[in-house]
Amino acid sequence: MDRRSILKNAGIAGVLAAGVAPAVHAQAAIRWRLASSFPKSLDTIYGAAEVFANQVKAMSGGKFEISVHAAGELMPAFGVVDGVEKGTVEACHTVPYYFFGKDETFAIGAAIPFGLNSRQMTAWMYEGNGLKLMREFYGKYNIINFPGGNTGAQMGGWFRKELKTAADVKGLKFRIGGFAGRIVERMGGVPQNIPGGEIYQALEKGTIDAAEWVGPYDDQKLGFNKVAPFYYYPGWWEGGPQVDLFINQKAYNALPAEYKAIVEAASSHAHVDMQAKYDARNPVALKQLVGNGAKLRAFPNDLMTQAFKISMQVYDELSAKNPSWKKVYEDYAKFRSDQNLWFRFTEATFDRFMQSQKL
Ligand code: PYR
C-alpha cells in the first residue's frame, strides 16, 4: 500500500499506530490574523507577536497558524482594538494604554504613572486580581487578553533641550505613550500620542520637541539620538508596562480546549521572552548611545514630585467619575502598596547595595 492510500484508509491515528511517520506537512486547520501596533524593525516588541505565533504553530504541530502583520499593514497602529472588537482580525498585539480615549481603565492593564514595576505587574496579573478584573473590563469590547510582554522600566525619552525644572515642561510638544499624556497636559506640556513607527519623522521635522518610546535598544534602532541629544530617566509613567495579546472573544471561544491551552502557554512564553530581550540588550545599547554622544540626565526632583502629585489627583478624580476605573484601580492600588512594602525590604535593599558596589 502506498503512503497516500495508508493515509486515506487508516487516517492519522492509524498511521501513528502502525509506526509510520507521515512525511506530509500538517495542513493548518485554523488560521488567524494578528495586527500589531508596532513596526517590524523592532524585533523586541513587534517580535513578541512572532514568538507567540511561532510557539502556537509549533505546539499545534502546524495546525494552528497565526500570521503577524505590522502596524499599518491591515489597519492603523491604533485601530487594532476596533479591529479585534469587530472581528476584522482575530487578534492584536498592543499596549492597552493607547486606548485610554475609549476608557481610562485600559491604561491600568498596561501602565499608569508611578504604577507597578514589571515583576509586580506580572504578579498582579497572574496571582492577584489583575487578569480577572481586566478580562471583565475588556469583555465589554468582545476581547479576552493575555499578557504578551513587558518592557521593564523605561527611559524618559529624548529631548532637544535640557530640562532644569518642572516649569520647562510648559509648552513642550512631547510624544508620550497613551494615558500618561493626561499628566503631562496638567503639567503644561502638549502630549502627542504617536505610534512607534512615526515618531522619528515627527522629531526630525520638529513637529515635536521631544519623544519617548521604550529604552536604549529600541530607541537606538529608531534613531532618536541623531536628532535629540538629552536622554532622560526614569520613565516615571512606565515602571513596568505590559504589552497585551487581545483576542476576539468569539474566535477564542470557538477554539478546541487544547488550542486554548496552547494560546495561554504561548503567550506566557512571549511575555517572559520580551522582558528577557530588553534586559539583555538595553545595557549594550546604552553604552553605544553614550559612546556616540547621548547625554544622560535624571529628571529634576521637582518635576518628579509635581508629576507624582498630579497623578494621584487624577486617579482620585477618575475614581469619582469612572466606575470601571474605580473598581480596577482600588484593587491595583492595594496591590501596589503591598508590593512596595515587600520590595522595600529585600529587593530594594539588595539592588541599592549592588549598585553601590559598581561591579
Ligand atoms: C510606547 O508607546 O511608549 C511604548 O512604551 C511601547
Automatic annotation (TrEMBL):
Q: Which residues cross the membrane?
A: none
- Quick check: keyword Zinc in the entry? no
Superkingdom of this entry's organism? Bacteria
Fetch the InterPro entries from UniProt: DctP_fam (IPR018389), SBP_TakP-like (IPR026289), TakP/all3028 (IPR041722), TRAP_DctP_sf (IPR038404)
Keywords recorded for this protein, A-Z: Signal
- Any Pfam family hit: DctP
- What is this protein's name? TRAP transporter substrate-binding protein
Source organism of this protein record = Ramlibacter alkalitolerans
Q: What is the lineage of its organism?
A: Bacteria, Pseudomonadati, Pseudomonadota, Betaproteobacteria, Burkholderiales
